[in-house]
């Protein structure tokens, strides 16, 4: 049986946590900040946890990470 391949696009975008969750960067952070409030801009910094409904799907894409 062949080895499972890691999906490289997903590997570049998501990191696996120790408990098995996934964290990723936020969307809406590349440009056009003048239309967003200060609170929105502040909360978009850093990483955010992926919703648990998507975790099962991404575990298949990143089997060894």
Q: What is the strand and helix layout of this fold?
A:
Layout: H1 8-13, E1 14-16, E2 22-25, H2 38-43, E3 47-49, H3 52-61
Antiparallel strand pairs: 1-2, 2-3
Provide a compact summary of the structure.
Belongs to the bacterial ribosomal protein bL35 family. It comes from Limosilactobacillus frumenti DSM 13145. 34% of the residues lie in helices and 15% in strands.
List keywords for this structure.
single chain, 65 residues, alpha+beta, three-stranded antiparallel β-sheet, 3 helices, 3 strands, structural constituent of ribosome, Large ribosomal subunit protein bL35
Description:
The chain is of the alpha+beta class. The chain has one domain. Helices cover 34% and strands 15% of the residues. It has 3 helices and 3 strands; from the N terminus they run αββαβα. A 3-stranded antiparallel sheet has the order 1-2-3. β1 and β2 form a beta hairpin. It starts with 7 loop residues before the first helix and ends with a helix.
Number of domains: 1
| Rg result | 15 Å
- The helix-strand sequence is HEEHEH
Largest sheet: 3 strands, antiparallel
As a percent range, the share of helical residues equals 25-40%
Q: Report strand order across the widest sheet.
A: 1-2-3
> Tell me, what's the shape?
elongated
Unreliable stretches covering 5 or more consecutive residues: none
Strand content range: 15-25%
Structural class: alpha+beta
N/C terminus separation: 20 Å
Can you count the helices?
Answer: 3
Number of strands: 3
Q: On the 0-100 scale, what is the average pLDDT?
A: 91
InterPro entries: Ribosomal_bL35, Ribosomal_bL35-like, Ribosomal_bL35_CS, Ribosomal_bL35_sf
Family: Belongs to the bacterial ribosomal protein bL35 family.
GO molecular function: structural constituent of ribosome
Biased composition (Basic residues): 31-44
